[in-house]
Q: What sequence folds into this?
């Protein structure tokens, strides 16, 4: 019953975090209407929602997390956005910097500096960047004015024709091919760095795979030795979760992979639990890095339990063999992606679920010998 309650709590927290969040301090006449449409905010704003629309002035910094984010009015500070789609309309002025991560990013208003990572970037005809654009994207379309310099890494870059001085400073760009730049579009210098897509030879590919395997295997040796020797019961817990509770383990893994970074991001953007957010992100990255080792232990220990004389050495060797097999399966075309997803989900789920489970595989008939 206790274990069931803990699992229910995990899902409940996950549900809450996916619901809308709005935090604003020291507000005057602040309220939230449909789709997070806000009235005037006179200090820093923190928002997390599916669709976020800011149509009134924000006298402070704005920290936004959402699926579709639209800025219609002024922000008298910096704008931090993590979204699928970000649109800054021509009615908006961003007095500070824009720090954005978005799949689709359109800027059609007036902004100071832009630091962005996106799949598609459009600088609209009404847009004006008062200082610099620093951008990493796949496709870049420049139709508006950049008063100083542009630093762009992109596969394709296009410029609006028949407009002089689109970039009044220098253009520094990196791409696979040289862009077709209108004659007077750039007032300053154009510096082009070409990315060469060289195909690896067979020997280079073999060296790359060997190096990757050595790194994964060496890391797995450390993780497996630590767990088997310092927490011997953990291996049996992992095997129990994988073999006796596979669906619950998968569910916990899916929730954990999604939930943990959301909690960390919310902790970071609110600034209230900054150190917790940093620690949680570091823990999340560490957990992801050892998922293949954890899954290897669960599988290897399962086969070790089938042996007549189970020892720590046999558990370690079988766990390492399992890691090697999983790694090789990840390289197989078509199924490799599914194997990698399975490894992350189950590895993450095993770590989380094992913390709540007190049960282990029944080893009554096996005699464990300590080396």
A:
């Amino acid at each position: 019953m206790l274990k069931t309650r803990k699992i229910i709590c995990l899902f409940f927290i996950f549900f809450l975090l996916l619901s809308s969040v709005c935090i604003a301090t020291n507000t005057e006449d602040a309220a939230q209407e449909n789709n997070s449409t806000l009235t005037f905010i006179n200090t820093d704003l923190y928002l997390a929602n599916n669709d976020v629309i800011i149509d009134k002035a924000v006298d402070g910094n704005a920290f936004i997390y959402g699926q579709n984010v639209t800025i219609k009015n002024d922000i008298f500070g910096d704008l931090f956005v993590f979204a699928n789609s970000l649109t800054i309309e021509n009615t908006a002025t961003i007095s500070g910097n824009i720090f954005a991560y978005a799949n689709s990013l359109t800027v059609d208003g007036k902004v100071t500096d832009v630091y962005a990572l996106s799949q598609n970037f459009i600088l609209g005809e009404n847009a004006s960047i008062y200082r610099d654009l620093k951008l990493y994207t796949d496709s870049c379309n420049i139709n508006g004015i950049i008063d100083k310099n542009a630093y762009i890494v992109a596969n394709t870059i296009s410029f609006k024709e028949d407009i002089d001085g689109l970039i009044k400073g220098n253009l520094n760009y990196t791409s696979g091919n040289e862009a077709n730049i209108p004659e007077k579009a750039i007032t300053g210098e154009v510096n082009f760095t070409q990315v060469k897509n060289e195909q690896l030879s067979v020997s280079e590919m073999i060296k790359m795979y060997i190096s990757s395997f050595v790194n994964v295997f060496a890391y797995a040796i450390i993780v497996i030795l630590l767990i088997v020797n310092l927490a011997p019961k953990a291996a049996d817990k992992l095997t129990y979760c994988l073999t006796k509770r596979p669906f619950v383990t998968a569910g916990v893994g899916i929730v954990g992979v999604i939930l943990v970074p959301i909690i960390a991001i919310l902790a970071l953007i609110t600034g209230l639990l900054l150190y917790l957010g940093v620690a949680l992100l570091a823990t999340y990255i560490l957990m992801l890095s050892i998922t293949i080792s954890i899954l290897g232990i669960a599988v290897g220990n399962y086969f070790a339990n089938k042996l007549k004389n189970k020892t720590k050495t046999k558990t370690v060797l079988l766990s390492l063999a399992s890691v090697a097999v999983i790694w090789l399966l990840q390289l197989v075309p078509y199924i490799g992606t599914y194997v990698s997803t399975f490894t992350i989900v189950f590895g993450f789920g095993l770590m989380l679920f094992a913390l709540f489970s007190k049960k282990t595989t029944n080893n009554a008939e096996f005699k464990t010998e300590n080396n």
In short: Residues 90 and 117 are 21 Å apart (CA to CA). Helices lie at 2-18, 202-230, 232-244, 246-270, 274-289, 291-305, 312-330, 336-356.
